[in-house]
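Hey,

Quick one before I head out. I ran the complex with flavin-adenine dinucleotide overnight. Inputs first:
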Amino acid sequence: MKRDLTALSSQEFDLAIVGGGIYGLACAWDAAQRGLSVALLERGDFAAATSWNSLKTIHGGLRYLQHADFKRMRESIHERTALMRIAPHLVHPLRFVLPAYGHGLRGREALAAYLWVSDLIGFDRNRLADPAHRLPRSCTIGVAECLQLLPGLPPDQLSGAGIWHDCQLASSNRLAMALLHSAVQVGAVAANYLEATGLLRRGDRVSGVRARDSLAGRELEVRARLVLNACGPWVNQMLGWSGSALKVPMSKAMNLVVRKMFDGFAVGFYGRRAFRDSDAWVAPGRKTYFITPWRGRSVIGTTHGPFQGDPNQLAVSEAEIEELLSDINQAYPPAQLTRAEVCLVQSGLLPAAERTAPSRPVRLLKHYQLWDHRQRDGLEGLVTVLGVKFTTARHVADRAIDLVVAKLGRGPIRSRTDRSALVGGAIEDWTEFVARAGRERPAGISEEAARRLALLYGSEHPKLLKYVANNPALGEELDEGSSVTRAEVVYGIREEMAQRLTDVVLRRTELGAAGYPGDAVVRRCAEWMAAELGWSQIRAESELAPLWAWRDSGKSPPP
Ligand SMILES: Cc1cc2nc3c(=O)[nH]c(=O)nc-3n(C[C@H](O)[C@H](O)[C@H](O)COP(=O)(O)OP(=O)(O)OC[C@H]3O[C@@H](n4cnc5c(N)ncnc54)[C@H](O)[C@@H]3O)c2cc1C
């Protein structure tokens, strides 16, 4: 994949997608697969904003039972299966444990009923041939078994625990890249660091976007018959350009990556404060947090709070971090988490159902939005898509492109994205695939690196091995802890449009996925990039500066 701005500015596309988060990428793949000519513009790096910060849970929507929203549950369950089918290397089952208290709505009996209904609604969840992607039946366990899993949990009122399976992404970055590769392979033209700065118009018709290449500082035009606004938290900017009266309120969400708390399974805890979900039919009356295993550490999430103002100014306060730590320490006293143990703060903006005053609980938007601005505002050629979950991005893209295809008068061409393996996803038996990758690795690649490459790049990992076969120096590993090879850095630059050091550290490799990876690692990575791209010493130092700032802040990395 090459960043080709000439190709973007020298033709008229059927569709120009603005925003290269998970929604824009899923739309690009769906549209290009249906035969549309597609341009994708991302103002920063691909999937660097909200999509980078997700908890990485691909879930069947157990929580939606509280809203009696069976349709949404079915969608989520379908998407969980679809993602395991099309990206079997990146989406894997994960066991969840939720302690039960007393015999009311947070009790074991209520939990057993929830899980029974959830399994019933997900009756077809195991229609995949690969046993590695089976989701076992849910169940409840007694107090003694629960305490074995969660030693030190205060036994007061504990009546057992519920156990179910959802999925976890091995890497949201690699899924984003797999979507991008898949879109480009069928003809999409994409560029990062290309910001849409306005709409091109012919009368009451949108005919493309004006754009600015933030690397070279030059302006260009991308002409298209239809423009799709997939800007996530920045959705309002394009709505403003279009003259639409629509304005989407936003809310702030946060996760914390901390030291390892549990091994190999996720745990849910109820927060200490009363919490009223005004949309729920039945609700436990408390906010539920989940602690999921993540790269030898744990992620705690997700908190939601009101947000007003410029999405570029999103910031998390120390008080918000301390509040979440204190909630977890109270729910699970053996944790005794301290601020110093927070390795990474993940935060992002999500659409809210209404504007919320500070200190009030937010009502999140529950359903995706798809707006044809001809019907809304009398403006032809502009469609907005706004998603609410990473899990359902493929499904929403499918619906958005149905609308695009109809508007372009291309007749019904059905989406096949729930059945077509993504680039890297051509794997039938995951267990055998990863074992073979470790066994049959070429000389110069450690077994750990070979298995990791299989996990992250799936059936494309031989391409990286070929890099090493052609130049054994590329088998060199950055450090013992990560086993990231020089081949991955070079591949990210040559094949995946990595432009900046942060692109490689945070999104082409998993170096920064669980926190700042250390001065030696980022310096070495900068040296490798400098050698590949011919950076001067001054350029390399300027690339390091945002990473030093991240290290010193102890919070979120630069976008
Ligand atoms: C803390 C947190 C935890 C979460 N956990 C989960 C979870 O476990 N499971 C789950 O299913 N969902 C989860 N989510 C929700 C999920 O992450 C989001 O729904 C999803 O990532 C939104 O993707 P997006 O593409 O709409 O937005 P984004 O990823 O923000 O993408 C929008 C993109 O548009 C680009 N853009 C904006 N303006 C322009 C412009 N003018 N020109 C060009 N590009 C532009 C931005 O740079 C950005 O990259 C979580 C979210 C958060 C914040």
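The longest strand covers residues 158-169.

Talk tomorrow,
K.
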